[in-house]
Design brief:
Layout lengths: L1 E10 L2 E10 L5 E5 L18 E3 L1 E6 L24 H12 L4 H18 L1 E8 L15 H13 L2 E8 L21 H15 L5 E3 L2 E2 L7 H14 L5 E5 L3 H11 L3 H8 L6 E5 L5 H10 L2 E4 L1 H7 L6 H6 L3 E4 L9 H16 L15 H17 L14 E4 L11 H10 L6 E6 L2 E5 L2 E2 L2 H16 L1
Helix pairs in contact: 2-3, 2-14, 4-5, 11-12, 12-13
Length: 467
């Protein structure tokens, strides 16, 4: 049994003073006692170096894309002739991913996960579509590339919800995939064999959860989607299901041409979308779709820095929250790896769009603080989307927490929800000092325990790729 004493901590019911945390051998919290200054165990418990808050779940990641961040910011890439868009960015990405080897993917993921942990993300949903060798042939172990992601997570200490992607086609209605997509492709039977293999290997690991990610309505047919969900249910009927949807206007137009319905409309009509689902981006929805999605209890997976980088558009957050919608945040293409930046731009986007301030008070009635409300809401939505007992500091949840560095100039003199407001909106310094995942310290005084070794390998991989 390990213990930790925090002078201040954010618990499910709000901020509490003098909190004693007790942590079991499996990395879960077995005791959370506020007002424990005189508790018999308090005197000998190590002291947190700052206010303690739950670590943030990152619900949407394509790990390999961290290595190409900054490489797609020149006019005319992807054969665009200067008319740059998500679709021309995608062509550049296909060229990059086509060269990656398994050990390189593991090294890139490990570097990314170190950066996530240092920024305060303590769990990640890896939306993983790189399955096969560069010619599209399966590896001897169907799970070769997935296991590289698991190995990177284990080596760095981050919690993982691994979401292998089902990808079968290149466009709505079963259009043939292109050569740039050959490493992603599986039929349903092969895909379910992969899922079953991963479940058998990792089911007992509290740091790993397995779900699925039908890539998009572009990439799977209605029959494939139905069969994949049914197959997953036969293994684990509570496992997470994530899907890209309605990210781009062209996607909406193409879906309407195929089905006479918009993507979110089609999905809600054809699948029992509910709390285990995460609809990633969902940028382009009508008012009716927004309300209907909110009522399902599914999570909207929002990635504002990537959505801004790709020119996706604005998620209808005020309307979605008005209808009781649940959201979480992800860093997607990792053009930025910062939970506070995702939350800041989620709010700022709507300030710019509507020319008003304090648009997204998402924390219920606990507090008028926008930053604190967004942080709380993203904790809850991210935990739900990843299907793991995280995002709260309560008995039975994982001991995933961060200690905030209140010596940062922007945070001096701040406490409680005002501290979270300042962390989100006041400046660009990382507010994270120490990070614990599953009861183990992985970041202390801003440094990850393995960052030098991980960085050496990542630097060598970048040298290979850039060369």
């Amino acid at each position: 049994m390990n213990t930790l004493f925090a002078a201040s901590a954010l618990l499910p019911d709000g901020w509490a003073a003098d909190v004693l945390f007790e942590i079991g051998p499996d990395g879960s919290l077995t005791g959370v006692t506020p007002n424990a200054a005189t508790h018999p165990g308090a005197a000998s418990a190590p002291r947190a170096a700052g206010p303690v808050v739950p670590g943030m779940p990152n619900l949407h990641s394509h790990a390999f894309q961290r290595a190409m961040a900054g490489l797609t910011e020149q006019v005319g890439q992807g054969g665009s002739g200067g008319d740059d868009s998500f679709w021309t960015w995608r062509q550049v990405m296909y060229g990059f991913v086509g060269r990656l080897m398994p050990d390189q993917v593991q090294a890139i993921a490990a570097q990314l996960y170190v950066e996530m942990l240092k920024a305060g993300y303590t769990a990640v949903g890896e939306f993983h579509y790189l399955h096969h060798d560069p010619d599209g042939r399966p590896y001897a172990d169907l799970a070769e590339m997935s296991e590289r992601i698991v190995a990177a997570a284990q080596a760095t200490g981050i919690g993982l919800t691994h979401l292998p992607v089902l990808y079968g086609y290149g466009g709505f209605g079963g259009q043939p995939a292109g050569s740039g997509q050959r490493r992603f492709l599986n039929d349903v039977d092969g895909f379910l064999r992969l899922i079953n293999r991963l479940l058998q290997r990792h089911r007992k690991n509290p740091q790993v959860r397995i779900g699925i990610a039908p890539h998009s309505l572009r990439a799977v047919t209605a029959e494939m989607l139905k069969a994949a969900v049914a197959g997953l249910d036969s293994f684990d009927d509570e496992a997470p299901i994530h899907i890209h949807i309605a990210e781009q206007v062209k996607e909406v137009q193409d879906c309407r041409a195929w089905s006479n319905q918009r993507p979110v409309e089609w999905l809600l009509h054809h699948q029992p979308v509910g709390p285990r689902w995460c609809l990633v981006h969902a940028t382009h929805m009508t008012e009716g779709e927004t309300a209907r999605l909110a009522r399902t209890g599914a999570v909207a997976g929002l990635c504002p820095t990537t959505e801004g980088n790709l020119g996706d558009g604005f998620f209808q957050a005020p309307e979605f929250l008005h209808h009781g919608g649940i959201f979480g945040i992800g860093s997607d293409s990792h053009i930025s790896v910062s939970p506070v930046e995702e939350l800041r731009w989620l709010e700022y986007g709507h300030r710019l769009l509507h020319r008003r301030r304090n648009m997204l008070a998402a924390g219920g009635n606990q507090s008028p603080s926008v930053g604190a409300g967004l942080y709380r809401a993203a904790l809850a939505g991210g935990a739900q989307a990843l299907g793991r007992p995280i995002g709260r500091l309560a008995v039975g949840t994982r001991a995933d927490l961060i200690a905030i560095d209140t010596e940062k100039p922007a945070l001096l003199g701040k406490s409680g929800d005002v501290l979270l407001d300042a962390a989100v909106f006041a400046g660009n310094e990382n507010p994270v000092r120490d990070v614990m995942v599953g009861g183990r310290w992985v970041v202390t005084e801003g440094r990850h325990v393995a960052e030098q070794a991980v960085l050496r390998r990542y630097r060598a991989v970048l040298s290979e790729l850039m060369g």
